[in-house]
Amino acid sequence: MELILSAGIGALTASGVYLLLRPRTYQVIIGLSLLSYAVNLFIFGMGKLRVNAPPVLNPAGAGDLATYTDPVPQALVLTAIVIGFAMTALFLVVLLASRGFTGTDHVDGREQRHD
């Protein structure tokens, strides 16, 4: 399970870095989103992956703390997802405004001509 999670995090990170280095602003925004998803998976994975473990409370009463799942990474990832959606919406608005002012969606504001 850890190998699949680490391979997914690596693939998202590699794709995000590749898209961040592209010259178009839309690709940069998608790259930032992929990087934020990779970081979310990384934080979620740091909370130890457990199968069939109670999230917070055991119905039988108090027990050993080692059998519980840590809720802090889950709360951090949930907060990061909400912030990521807001960040993506803000970036898209800035992208549309920048394209309206400059007439292009290049990161540096001008098209390169290949003569």
From TrEMBL:
Signal peptide coordinates: none
GO terms assigned for molecular function: antiporter activity; monoatomic cation transmembrane transporter activity
Coiled coil: none
GO biological process: proton transmembrane transport
Places the protein is found: Cell membrane
Family as reported in the entry's similarity comment: Belongs to the CPA3 antiporters (TC 2.A.63) subunit C family.
Membrane topology of this protein: Multi-pass membrane protein
Name the record gives this protein: Na+/H+ antiporter subunit C
